[in-house]
Every structure is written in C-alpha cells, then in structure tokens.
Write a structure and sequence with these properties.
Blueprint (H helix, E strand, L loop, with lengths): L2 H19 L6 E10 L5 E3 L4 E7 L5 E8 L5 E7 L4 E6 L3 E6 L11 E2 L3 E2 L1
Parallel strand pairs: 1-8, 1-9
Antiparallel strand pairs: 1-2, 1-5, 3-4, 3-6, 6-7
Length: 119
C-alpha cells in the first residue's frame, strides 16, 4: 500500500471517529424527590404535585422545558435535559428551586440525582 493511500485511509478513519465521538449528546436525565414536613419536622412525600422545569434563555426570559407530576413517593423525573444551562424547578406553580444540570456518563449513571426539595 502506498503512503498516500495509508494517509487517506487514516484521515477517513479519524474523521469517522471524530463524528461518532461528537454525536449529539441526548441530554441528562434528572431524578428528584419533594417532601413536606409537619409541625414536628416529620417529612412526608409530596404526592402528585405539579413539577415544571424552566431554563433561562439569553434574553433573561424563563422558558418552560418539561412538566411532570410527582409519584406516590414524591419522586419526579425529567428526561434528556441539555446540560450547562441555568434551570429552575417550580413546584405547584408557586415555589422555585434553582438546579445545575451536568452531562452524565451513561456507561455509569442513568440519572443525575437532584437534592431533596422540602416544600
């Protein structure tokens, strides 16, 4: 094989490898739990609550990204959220919690666990 053909094959292989490595990241899956506490500090899951995910755009406007409900145990999930943006979670349309979303390695994790929110 001539040197030119080897170089061309190498460049083609390198280009294909880079394209595969830079394939569109699907986003980060988020998982969290919301609880409320009574007068004595006992915590209970906030069940079937509205949970909205907003992000802050370049014009400083909050945009609704996804909506869900908590389950019977107070857990909620958002799928394929783009990392490295400013986000807030709004619960029952009246309480906001700021969050940070990072890229996760799907070889090791299925979700980014968010902190426990006390409503």
């Amino acid at each position: 094989m001539t040197t030119k053909i080897k170089i061309i094959l190498f460049l083609v292989f390198a280009a294909l490898s880079i394209e595969e490595a830079s394939a569109q990241y699907p986003g980060t899956n988020l998982r969290g739990k919301i609880v409320y506490s009574d007068y004595y500090g006992t915590q209970y899951p906030l069940t079937y609550a509205n949970v909205d995910l907003y992000y802050l755009d370049n014009n400083n406007q909050w945009n609704l990204v996804q909506q869900t409900l908590t389950d019977a145990y107070g857990f909620y999930y958002f799928n394929y959220v783009r990392p490295n943006y400013t986000y807030a979670i709004q619960v029952n349309r009246n309480r906001n919690y700021n969050i940070s979303v990072v890229a996760i390695d799907y070889n090791y994790y299925q979700y980014q666990d968010l902190p426990l929110f006390i409503y």
